[in-house]
Amino acid sequence: MKKYKHLIRTIILAVLVAIVFRAYFFASYIVDGESMEPTLYDGNLLMVNKVLYDWTDVHRHDIIVFHYNEEDDYVKRVIGLPGDHVAVKNDTLYINGAPVEEKYLDELRPDDGRVFTGDFTLEGVTGNSEVPEGQLFVMGDNRRDSLDSRSFGFIDIQSIVGKVEVRYWPMSQLGMTFR
């Protein structure tokens, strides 16, 4: 009986630690839609680090989950940080006038002669010439089929739920690196 008491205490402690860990440090999300393909696919299950940005800044190219509104959370890639000037010309992303390589798009770019990311300037899509303080400019990787900052404008840094750290379902697509 003494042996079972120790086992039961250990199991209860493990469950409590897992609940606290899940509630305060990580969240699980399901990708809904095709806007992040080929990096993330519809139905992928993600583990999102909810506390990382309490200790570090958001970085360009991070994949984040954020509250779009009271009901919906979106997953997108950070493109523009506060103070950045963002533009796309001839299918090339420019940040502060310098071209930025986006290798994560190579797999998706079709060789169909059409532009993958249409030309735009930040001012043309948001009315601002630079990303305001406390805001981010985000885009989906599937540039032809993504509802992102080109449509809804900047997102507030405070709306970030966390950084996507792990894709754990389906197991055949298990991944921890999304660059």
From TrEMBL:
Q: Please name the CDD domains in this protein's record.
A: S26_SPase_I
One Pfam match: Peptidase_S26
Q: What is its EC number?
A: 3.4.21.89
- SUPFAM superfamilies, A to Z: LexA/Signal peptidase
Q: Mind listing the UniProt keywords for this protein, alphabetically?
A: Cell membrane, Hydrolase, Membrane, Protease, Transmembrane, Transmembrane helix
Q: Which GO terms describe its molecular function?
A: serine-type endopeptidase activity; signal peptidase activity
Q: What does the sequence similarity comment in the record state about its family?
A: Belongs to the peptidase S26 family.
Spell out the protein name for this chain. Answer: Signal peptidase I
- Species of origin reads Salimicrobium halophilum
